[in-house]
Amino acid sequence: MALSDSVTTCLSPPVHYVICKLGFEKTDTYDINTILSENGEVCWQAVTEHVCYLKSDQSVDYIESIRSLGPVCESVNLHFKSLTKQQFVIQYALWFRWTNCSELFLEVFDVLQYTQTTEVALGLMKLTSCLERALGDVYLLIGKDCPFLLRDLLASEQLAVVFGQAVMNVLRVFIGSPYGLNLRNVLWHGFASPQEIPAKYCAMLLFLTAGLGQLLQTYLLQTKCILVHRPYVIFVNLEELDVFPLNHEMLSIAEELVKLSSFVLKTMLPFWMAALKAFKQSRYADCVILLLPQLEVGFRLLFTTTNKCPNRLLTAEVKFLSKVNYDLMLAKHLDNEVNQLPAVLEEPTMASEFLWDFLNHQEGPRIRDRLSHGEINLEAFPREVANQIVAFAVTLLCRFSDEDMFAFKEHMVIKPLMNCASCYRSRFHPISRLKKQVLECMKSIHLWPELPTVPEEHVETTKRLEGNAESSTLILMISEIISQLQQYMPQNCCSSDDPINSVLTERLLIALCDMYICTLYSPRPVLEIVVVLRKISTQCHQVSEQVIAGTELRYKQWMNKTLRSRQRHNYLRMLNSIKFLSPVLRLILVLITLELVNVHLVCKKNPFDYQQYLKFLKSVLQYTENLVTYTSPGKNKWDETVELTNKALIKIREICDRKLMLMQLAT
């Protein structure tokens, strides 16, 4: 029998006891009127007295607190069940406004009426993420940098000032502390199945959120402060996230695959079905919230099986909860041994690079972080993102299915998806972003020949010849450097007739950027080099944009005869400088890309003094930074640009002569 069939819980025995049994040990009935006043306010003192403390150091005794609060939670749950939707709205809706997502909390009330376990778990995940975001907004009334982790936020002095330490301790029993119920993390990391989350804990958090709203109103009235909500994160450039095709036929097949794939734990099957249903109903945030923890469960199942550590599949305890996640599962090494998970994936780079792209890379969408910390407007969650997560999940369901599932894998609808997955390359790794920057910069420089220039008859012959000798010298030096580097370039992109215009082209850069570079497990030297290369590329792009803007402006002023004599001379110097600046910038972009292609190969060699190489790169960066200054509208130091460029090219030629470029070291 497959392990995915035999596993009945992902909670270790101690954690299963805490979540599923401890809060049910006291069976006495608790009167709701003890914690709820006649005017509908939460009586916090009656709630906080159920939090117990250790005699040794007066820290929270989470076990006894959960046991004591169990009947209170049941009372709140029954109270909510006794209310109609209208009664609930009248009594509580006002107190959810501070969260900036009142409708979500009203939806959670609806879910509690029917006690559908999957929907309760989903409601709890959404509730905790929105509550965390709202608490972060409250923190910023006093503090400056909001803690990233919920446990640090709940333990902060700032929230204790607003709500009181006793109140914060109540919250920490339910969320935030790994010693308590830890409902948020247990759900978001995929440890709990739908039936393992008692609905009464969801009801209690709903109740506590309303109570926090009441306390906050009092604090704001006393301090005259105004609560400001941080803006939501908005996904931009959604076309970059468009990787996999997905249609209704694929969804129908996915519903069959879910029931058969070894990637899915059977106890978690309701989550998968609910996720696919949510997608069909255009509830894209719900779909992704349900699916992300299940992807983690599936990878954890593979990880623990291939690395022969099955105990970690069943762990949600303090010392492991924050570790058995994607960071560990995608790591190169595990306890001084090679992580075997990438080896069992048919396309190890594809799965790992996709996960890093969508979940981890700082310039990527970081979907799980932003969803789980409440940074995204759930109502406006883009279909494009959900599309990719669902499609990626389908490829995993196919890949980890039995041999007799061959028909599914070769299905005319699924096969294009699998082919697309096998070709996936990282889009948000720093190396990938550098490639994108270089191509965008080259597109900008390619606009230069189209810029308007002064008609020949408007310029005196002596002025046209001014500076030509200097430009010719620089262009000759560029040609010499190109001739040194041509052997490292793709042959179909080179020509000896006109080295500058035939080699320093967009076609060459595209060919170089199309070369595959593995972004997994990039060593520190590689990342440090890429950081500097990206800065150089950014400065080159800035120079190009300034040249375009300055040329267009001066041309209009020339034609309108509004330039003074000195400005006219300066404009002519600019036109002359453009002749050598274009090939210089293109040369730098080609150098960046050639070096990028070889950086992994060189960094594997020993010895390699990459600090010395970084020093050279930083000198190139300094040159481009100075170029930005000299070509800015406020400076226009074109004569100085000639001298600056001459020194930079001499330095580059010297490095090439000494064969210290990465492309030279790699051969």
- Spatially, the strands of the biggest sheet line up as 1-2
Q: Structurally, how many domains make up the residues?
A: 3
Helix/strand-derived class?
mainly alpha
Let me know the largest β-sheet: 2 strands, antiparallel
Task: Count the beta strands.
Answer: 2
User: Are there runs of 5+ residues with pLDDT below 50, and where?
Assistant: 318-323
The value of Rg in angstroms is 31 Å
Shape: elongated
* Beta strand %: under 5%
Span of the ends, CA to CA: 52 Å
Give the quaternary arrangement of the chains. single chain
Number of continuous helical runs: 33
Mean pLDDT: 88
Protein name: EMARD protein
Domain DUF4209: 131-211
Pfam families: DUF4209
Structure description:
By secondary structure, the protein is mainly α. It has helices at 3-6, 13-20, 44-48, 62-82, 85-92, 102-114, 117-139, 150-154, 157-163, 165-174, 183-188, 199-223, 248-260, 269-280, 284-306, 318-321, 326-329, 341-344, 348-360, 367-372, 383-399, 406-409, 414-422, 430-445, 461-465, 468-485, 499-503, 506-513, 524-559, 565-603, 610-630, 638-657, 662-665; strands spanning 333-334, 337-338. Strands 1-2 form a two-stranded antiparallel ribbon. A hairpin with a 2-residue loop joins β1 and β2 (337-338). It is elongated, with a radius of gyration of 31 Å. The two termini are 52 Å apart. Mean pLDDT is 88; it is low at 318-323.
